[in-house]
Amino acid sequence: MSDDQHAKGSMSYLMEMGALKRAKRSGWWIAGVKDPETIAEHSFRTAVIGAVLAMMEGADPAKVALLCTFHDTQETRVGDIPWVGRRYLKAAKNEDVTADQVADAHPAVAAGVRAVVEEYENGDSLEVTVAHDADKLECMIQGIEYLEQGYRNAQEWVDSTRAKLKTASAVELAEAAQGMSSAEWQRVFLR
Prior knowledge:
globular, mainly alpha, Hypothetical protein af1432
């Protein structure tokens, strides 16, 4: 493949990632949320949470943020399949979807993206554990925000994702979140 074809393949992948800005996190529809966050919105905050958790846990914040950034990129092709749907559907492995997504990209891009997704899906390092906790903690925080908006069924998501947290720092942050308003951060300016 020529450099021009690799450039187009890499750009195709980047354009495909733009679809994540429009794709909704469909699991929230089960909780009655009419206009849930997008996959990109979820992934952004997951990456920030991941970096913070990594700092608290002594892991590599940049690596965790990278793992979190790419953790749901396959959903451009398979959608956001809620856990209840996974019982009835057999989706391709994220590693296989990623391989298809970057098949025409520059070889270094293809290898790099595939390695990140492979590590997130199959690794057992502290960084992977922290990245998985960041994903769950973001879901829990989003659930708290939906509870504040009146979506009572989001409580199940808050409880179930909190119960899956593994690191002490994630549990500590989850406990703090449950006693706070999502607008708490701005109170410092109102004093």
